[in-house]
Design a protein that fits this description.
The chain has a five-stranded mixed sheet. It has a five-stranded mixed sheet with strand order 10-9-8-11-12, covered by helices on one side. Strands 5-6 form a two-stranded antiparallel sheet. Strand 8 and strand 9 form a beta hairpin. The protein folds into two domains: 116 residues, ATPase, nucleotide binding domain (Nucleotidyltransferase, domain 5, 2-Layer Sandwich), CATH 3.30.420.40; 160 residues, 2-Layer Sandwich (Nucleotidyltransferase, domain 5). It starts with 5 loop residues before the first strand and ends with a helix. It contains nine helices and twelve strands. It is of the alpha/beta class. Helix 1 packs across helix 2 and helix 3 packs across helix 9.
Length: 298
């Protein structure tokens, strides 16, 4: 009896490259995490080395932050990891590893595919999977499938919240990710000197922010409110009722939650606001590479 196919997925984040090998039926067989090099050539070499260590055969999936040219196999624009831009990663990986194909996808879309396959969005008909990390990414699920539009759908992190707000890596001002990403939360905490004994420490900020009356709790309410205002655009436009929140900063979701609810209520309308579900992602930092691998299994 022939064995079920296995595939390798790789996911490039702001600081870490996560990768793994998974079976057709969703069993994780191997998993790795390494630092992301600052140099583009070194990053490409690292991707090849990790894929080779995992035993990549036939095809791999690759999740990358930024705007993706899927046909040419490269990243057009990546505000938070500029060393990725214009690297012909599809060609480099397929050539170095002798692969039939390399499937590139935006990292947030890859995370959404992972959560849709094996995580919190499993069985969801319509949902937005949001990743809170160095920036904010979004993967849009409509009718049970990842929706790309003309190719760039789901970029919730670049919805404009405050035109007079901080400048974003994309060149705009006041994008959602300048107000509610992990990077933004750290900046806002530092501006207020929070936590007082270790300003900018997000883990400590989240821990103390669980007390809504504390200065840290007040700050995380404001960050969550801004996130909720961003999410309210999807409620109004698409009538979405399910939001899955992942990424490293999702560890603070319980502290952010009241603010998120307040922001959605401020930006949307009608009884549907009370029906919105805000769910924690369940695959953690593995969601991106699992979703990328699922592309290679298709």
């Amino acid at each position: 009896m022939p064995s079920l196919p296995e595939r390798v997925g790789l996911d490039v984040g702001g600081t870490r490259l996560k990768a793994g090998r998974i079976s057709f039926d969703g069993r994780v067989l191997d998993e790795r995490s390494v630092a992301v090099p600052a140099d583009g050539k070194e990053l490409a070499d690292t991707l090849v080395a990790v894929a080779r260590e995992l035993g990549a055969e036939h095809s791999v999936g690759l999740g990358l932050p930024g705007l993706i040219d899927r046909e040419r196999g490269l990243v057009l624009d990546s505000p938070n990891i500029p060393q990725l831009e214009e690297l012909p990663l599809g060609e480099l990986l397929s050539g170095a590893l002798g692969l039939e194909s390399v499937h590139l996808e935006n990292d947030a879309n890859a995370a959404a595919l992972g959560e849709l396959w094996l995580g919190a969005a499993r069985g969801a008909e319509h949902a937005l999977v949001v990743t809170l990390g160095t920036g904010i990414g979004g993967g849009l699920v409509l009718d049970g499938e990842l929706f790309l539009g003309a190719g760039l759908a789901g970029e919730i992190g670049h919805v404009r919240i405050d035109p007079a707000g901080p400048i974003c890596g994309c060149g705009g001002h006041g994008c959602l990710e300048t107000l509610a990403s992990a990077t933004a939360a750290r900046r806002r905490a530092l501006e207020r000197g929070l936590p007082e004994d270790d300003p900018g420490n997000l883990e400590l900020l989240a821990e103390r922010g669980r007390d809504p009356a504390s200065p840290e709790g007040e700050l995380l309410f404001e960050v969550g409110r801004d996130l909720g205002i961003g999410l309210s655009t999807a409620v109004c436009l698409l009538d979405l009722r399910t939001f899955v929140i992942g990424g490293g900063f999702a560890a603070a979701l319980d502290a952010l939650g009241p603010g998120i609810r307040a922001g959605i209520r401020a930006g949307a309308y009608g009884d549907r606001v009370d029906l919105v579900r805000i769910l924690p992602a369940t695959l953690g930092s593995s969601a991106g590479w699992i979703g990328a691998a699922s592309l290679a299994l298709r």
